[in-house]
C-alpha cells in the first residue's frame, strides 16, 4: 500500500470537509445580520449576539483546520522521502491521538453539552439565555456532524497506517 497516497487522500478529504465549518459560520453570521435587521420581538433580538459569536467561532475553527491541513499536505512528500518509517510512526501517533480526542470531545463532551443546554432551555426563560442555549445547540450540532465524518475518515486512515506498520 502506498501510504503517501493514503495520507495525501486523507488530507485532501479534510481540505474538502473543513470549509463546511466556514460555510456554517457564514450562515450563522448571516442569521445574526438577519435578526439584527428584521428582528422585531425581544426573542429575535436576543439571537443577534449568540449567532454572531457562533458564526465567528465556526469560521475560526474552519480556517484553522484548513490551513493546518493545507500545510500538512504540502509537507507530506518531503517528510515521507526523508524517512518513510518515521513518517508512518509520526502519522500513526497523530492519528491515534486524534481518535482519542474525538472519542472524548466529539462523542462524549459535545453530546453532554447539548443535553445540558437543552435542560437549560427548560429552566432559563429569559430571551437572551434561551437564544444563547439554542444557538449553542445548533453550533455544537454542526461541529458534531462535521467532526463525525472527519472521525470516520481518520479511522480509515489509521487502519491504513496500521496495515503499513505491520508490513514493515
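^ Assign residues to that structure.
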Amino acid at each position: 500500500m502506498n501510504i503517501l497516497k493514503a495520507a495525501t487522500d486523507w488530507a485532501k478529504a479534510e481540505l474538502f470537509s473543513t470549509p463546511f465549518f466556514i460555510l456554517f459560520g457564514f450562515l450563522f453570521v448571516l442569521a445574526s445580520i438577519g435578526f439584527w435587521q428584521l428582528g422585531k420581538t425581544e426573542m429575535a433580538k436576543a439571537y443577534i449576539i449568540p449567532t454572531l459569536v457562533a458564526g465567528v467561532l465556526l469560521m475560526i475553527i474552519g480556517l484553522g483546520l484548513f490551513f493546518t491541513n493545507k500545510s500538512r499536505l504540502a509537507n507530506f512528500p518531503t517528510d515521507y522521502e526523508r524517512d518513510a518509517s518515521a513518517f508512518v510512526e509520526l502519522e500513526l501517533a497523530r492519528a491515534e491521538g486524534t481518535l482519542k480526542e474525538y472519542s472524548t470531545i466529539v462523542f462524549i463532551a459535545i453530546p453532554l453539552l447539548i443535553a445540558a443546554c437543552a435542560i437549560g432551555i427548560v429552566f432559563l426563560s429569559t430571551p437572551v439565555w434561551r437564544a444563547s442555549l439554542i444557538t449553542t445547540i445548533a453550533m455544537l450540532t454542526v461541529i458534531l456532524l462535521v467532526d463525525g465524518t472527519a472521525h470516520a475518515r481518520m479511522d480509515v486512515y489509521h487502519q491504513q497506517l496500521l496495515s503499513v506498520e505491520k508490513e514493515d
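Helices lie at 3-17, 19-38, 42-46, 48-82, 84-123, 127-167.
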